[in-house]
Input
Amino acid sequence: MKPGIHPETMTTEIACSCGNVIETRSTQERISVEICSVCHPFYTGKQKLVDTAGRVERFKRKYGERRSKE
Output
């Protein structure tokens, strides 16, 4: 490895919106995230539906009422 081309690393706190704080090393001093392994639905088994601009309701309105013809 070439000397002098790598950025300096420091102890970093990664703060999630759920309140979980993880310590690691990075080039930034503090990092904020919205979802971590403590609150992510894949790891918790609970499904949280994040609706952006009413897209879920629009999808349900458009496709939710269709029934198959038998």
In short: Residues 60 and 67 are 13 Å apart (CA to CA). Strands lie at 10-16, 21-26, 30-33.
